[in-house]
Amino acid sequence: MTPGPLLALAAASFGGADWERRSGLLVGGEPVHLRLDALSALFLVLVCAIGGLAAGYAREYWSAHHYPASASRSRAWWSALLLSMGLVLTASNGLHFLMQSYIVYVLAALTLMGALVLAPGWP
Predict the structure, then answer these.
(1) Residue 90: φ, ψ to 5°
(2) Which among 43, 55, 69, 115 is least buried, having the fewest CB atoms inside 10 angstroms?
């Protein structure tokens, strides 16, 4: 990973200039346009911090040693959910914002359904 987004996050967090990235990739007929300003940087820091703490807790609570069948799947879902929330915070195009919001909703619903179906301690 290049340090560009990390430096942009730090600059936007401390009142620097906004970071923008336009891509030639078309999604839904529109080019991908990401933007990071001070407010979205604040929420992105919160998502990363809380997501990282939760991932660290889950690594000990739901270890791959005790639950080899489901631990890797749950980590993949959690990573996809955090990535989607980060993309929602940086999406500058309304269509992409709605698409990412729906993906976050679906991933959260699937994660919650899995948590309700599998009680803690079940493999």
Answers:
(1) -105, -5
(2) 69
